[in-house]
Amino acid sequence: MYAAQIDYHRACSLQEAIALLQEHEGAKIIAGGHSLIPLLRFRLSDASSLIDIGRLDELKGISRSNGCVSIGALTTHAELASSDVLKDACPIIPEAAAVIGDPQVRNRGTVGGNLAHADPGSDLPTVLVALGAEFRVAGPSGDRLVAAADFFQGLMSTALGNDDVLTSVEVPAAQAGQGMAYAKYIHPASRYAVVGAAAVLTASGDTCSAARVAVGGLTPSATRAPSVECSLTGNGLGEKAQAEAASQVANDLGDDLLGDISASAGYRLKMAEVYVGRAVAAAAARTA
Amino acid sequence: MTTRIFSSGIRRREDPRLITGQASYTADIKLPGMTHAAILRSPHAHARIKSIDASAAAGRDGVVAVFTGADTEGALNGIPCAWQVPNSDVKAVDHPPIAKDVVRYVGDAVAVVVAESRYVAEDALEHVDVEYEPLSSVTDPKKATADGAPQLHEDAPGNQAFHWTVSGGDAGAAFSEADVVVKDRIVHQRLIPNAMEPRAAVAQWVGSTQDLTLWSTSQNPHIARFLMSVVTDLPEHRIRVIAQEVGGGFGSKIPFYADEAIIAFCAMRTGGPVKWVETRSENYQATIHGRDHIEEVELAATRDGKITGVRAAVWAGMGAYLSTASTGIPTILHGLMYAGPYDIPNVHGDVYGVFTNATPVDAYRGAGRPEATFLVERMVNLLADKLGMDPVELRRKNLIPAFENGHDVSTGLTYDSGDYEKALDMLMDSIAYQDLRRDQAAARSEGKHVGIGVTTYVEICGLGPSQVAGAVGFGGGLWESAIIRFHPTGKVNVMTGASPHGQGEETTFAQVVSHELGVDVDDIEVLHGDTDTSPMGWGTYGSRTTAVAGAAVALGARKLKEKGKAIAAHLLEAAVEDIEYDDGNFFVKGSPDQSKTIDDIALMANVAWNLPEGMEPGFESTTFYDPPNFAYPFGAHAAVVELDPDTGQISLTRYVAVDDCGTQINPMIIEGQVHGGVVQGAGPALWEGAVYDDGGQLITGSMMDYALPRADMVPEIETMSTDTPSPDHPLGVKGIGETGTIASTVTVYNAVMDALKPFGVDKLDMPLTPERVWRAIHHGNGS
């Protein structure tokens, strides 16, 4: 496929990127291009110009301070998957990043692009909603932090304004007694998640003292699973409790479920239960 | 002077240029003044074209020309189908290269824009204003034959493209007398071939000489030239087709497509060279699909498991038009193989070719034989279930006993040579079948679900004797030719009319010449793919290149050996009967010191200072080889799968292939063919399938929706071989290009169905997606 004619600007600073966005109506930010370029080639995006932030060093890198990990928007999936800081502080992120697409996608695709694109089959939104991450957004009037759960607003829709740039993701580091896991049903063609389930559990002794669970793939955007969380919290983490909790997930996903020729919505709903169960089981095993 | 390299897995000599990006594909061609074409394709499965207004597109900056079907009137004839299968009432419906009045599938060409760049051409497509009147459409080949179904062609009532039958013995009697009959309905979904390189064409027209040169991604440039001549009325000797590097085809680059004719037309009309490169999404719509069968099959047997008959009715979707070789695929290459490797005396098949509002179907790796093997092997398993027999024992009971030189089959074929049970024995030893069954039972008792599939197969390839080609209605010969040319320095060029495009014949043919004449393999260059420099040949497909063109090379080398003996006798002043040859040396019997090397002979023949009286100079042979029979490779395959009942997901955990392709020239290349073929055949069993919606839109329009197998979805393929030489081929070679796909689809399918036995599931359509499997487990057969 051949993209329609489009203007291209390379930003030399974050401020310039924002200024270019203000200047060019209908402009889109591009970094790794692994979500946007396919849309342009299929002529499914109405972007009139591209603003390339791919060389802005200020948006790169992973750092840890004060119990929080900051991930620059330009960090690639491959960098997430191999990050020692994240493996220690937030191992569910490398776990999920390692099953995004294929090596080429992971080498080029960036965190910021993935989140801003907000594909329902993406893995990171599910994981970051479960983690309670916050997204740093820079705009004409300065920076603000948006909670992950508020950032995703439906199918390929986010809280980003026209002139905003997602600059980093702030994630709380794992605490003692926490175990986290991501379970993914991989789409055989696209490699997106048919169903993705993320569980972040905290154990006190034999009891689950806190649970955050999120599901993606079958909902328009990553969705918290409060019924599952509620079922887990305050109870033991045995197999029976896990299964009971997972069976609650249908209550959390609403009626707007996605399906395609390889997996219908009804089947995905059943699979959500299976994969939530798997994520919870793996997370529970890691609380020890 | 040389090491023995025949039967050794030397590395492919074509690979360094391919993997370092130094090879030049059709898309790499750049010519002065070259313009770029983009083709507007129908968004409708079936519609009448009420009007086309191309003026806005034509007026855009950078647009050179826009052509519609009306412009091609009188300049381009219809695209022909080259296989008129006899006694089948084949409907040779008109196939205009650019649709004129009616579009019949999503992807049918409607207009072409020629512009200074591809981007300008693509943008201009959006400004060609076509008014369509949508018509009702049908994509299911069985439904297309129903009363009241939308009709595609006036000349093909009931959408019937042909009706072909195969009959041997007395199937009616076999079924009425059978102790046991098993039946099934088998659906082979449409597949998208997905060659790594999409199709492309560059056409150059020289008006002053009336010469057309076409760079094309063809598997058979001579056939492309022949059909280009038919479509354009240009004389054949003024057309040159070059297929220099072709990035795979799997059959999808056999056909002569409308697009090649359109690009040639654009070059002739604009006067300058024109390039067109298919996009991947365009490839999904406009390049042929494979398979698309609906089959109703039954097998008759005695109570003790002797198969007595097979009967089938097949509705084979042809798509909207008959592609070049399409009619021969579900007939000659399919129905004649209904007996498989078994002694089945009574066979009857009815094959209905059916027009549908979908992309035309033609040969796709295996082409008719994967469907035939599936049909036989699935039914054998159902029979085993019904009789309570082990499926391997049932196969053993029915296999044709070993034979070395011809075995007549009830379908009318004569298999060349085979020892089918030997291949099965090797497979059984390799997988420790009895242990595997024990392990399976133990696993089941622990709630783990393992399935085992075992296939024995024989296939028909190495197409084929030209007399037979004529008798079965193929519009060409199926022989091959080779020129072997020694230069004065002893270096060699081999020119073949076959057109390898990934199979490695630049290596294997060099090995053949090296084997026959003792020349180092690095001193031999194999040339192909250019109708101006390659001798006539019918192309690379149907596992025929080494089986047919390779024979021409071997026989051509032997001619030179005889000439070399005559020259050596003359130079050594000995009688020609006294000259012996060994590994590149000609010497006098009993006096190995009195010798001439092949280099000495090549030099003398080329300078011609001292040759036997009356001998022509030069050390070159031209050889035409028409095979006396087809080749019939065979083997036995096994697959092991694990099933996750919670999700329906299948893991292919083990695959073992025993293949017999006769003499092996390069075992590494053979292993590669088997690996690729097995994975390509596993694809439709588990993942692949083109899907149209009710309106005839291709839902699986890209790789985001069409699930191709990937390396991490398959286990390491274990390969082994037996070696039963062909009695016909000068080297004993059969063919190996398609055995993997022919055997693996049903092997994997049967393994999954074996895993599903405890759930009472015995029928499920491909691909065996997790959802289908999960629903069958939870809700019973079907979807």
What would your notes on this structure say?
The complex is a heterodimer of chains A (288) and B (783). Chain A is of the alpha+beta class. Chain A is built from twelve helices and twelve strands. Chain A has three domains: 7-52, Uridine Diphospho-n-acetylenolpyruvylglucosamine Reductase, domain 2; 57-172, Uridine Diphospho-n-acetylenolpyruvylglucosamine Reductase, domain 3, CATH 3.30.465; 178-286, 2-Layer Sandwich (Enolase-like, domain 1). In chain A, helix 2 (36-41) links the parallel strand 2 and strand 3 (49-52). In chain A, helix 10 runs antiparallel to helix 11 and helix 11 runs antiparallel to helix 12. The N and C termini of chain A lie far apart (51 Å). Chain B is α+β, with helices and mostly antiparallel strands. Helix content of chain B is 27%, strand content 24%. Chain B is built from 18 helices and 28 strands. The interface between A and B is medium-sized, with 21 and 27 residues.
Strand and helix layout:
The complex is a heterodimer of chains A (288) and B (783).
Chain A: E1 7-10, H1 14-23, E2 27-30, H2 36-41, E3 49-52, E4 62-65, E5 68-72, H3 77-82, H4 84-89, H5 92-97, H6 103-108, H7 111-117, H8 124-131, E6 134-139, E7 142-147, H9 148-151, E8 165-172, E9 178-186, E10 193-204, E11 207-216, E12 223-224, H10 226-232, H11 239-246, H12 265-286
Parallel strand pairs in A: 1-3, 2-3
Antiparallel strand pairs in A: 4-5, 5-8, 6-7, 6-8, 9-10, 10-11, 11-12
Helix pairs in contact in A: 10-11, 11-12
Chain B: H1 15-19, E1 35-41, E2 47-53, H2 55-58, E3 63-68, E4 102-103, E5 109-115, H3 118-125, E6 129-134, E7 160-168, H4 171-177, E8 180-191, E9 200-206, E10 211-216, H5 221-232, E11 239-242, H6 258-270, E12 274-277, H7 280-286, E13 290-301, E14 307-319, E15 346-355, H8 369-387, H9 391-398, E16 407-408, E17 414-415, H10 420-431, H11 433-445, E18 449-458, H12 466-471, E19 480-486, E20 492-496, H13 505-517, E21 524-527, H14 545-571, E22 579-582, E23 585-588, E24 591-597, H15 598-607, E25 620-625, E26 634-644, E27 649-660, H16 667-686, E28 717-721, H17 739-755, H18 770-779
Parallel strand pairs in B: 1-12, 10-11, 14-15, 20-21, 27-28
Antiparallel strand pairs in B: 1-5, 2-4, 2-6, 3-5, 7-15, 8-13, 9-10, 9-12, 13-14, 16-17, 18-26, 19-20, 19-25, 22-23, 23-24, 26-27
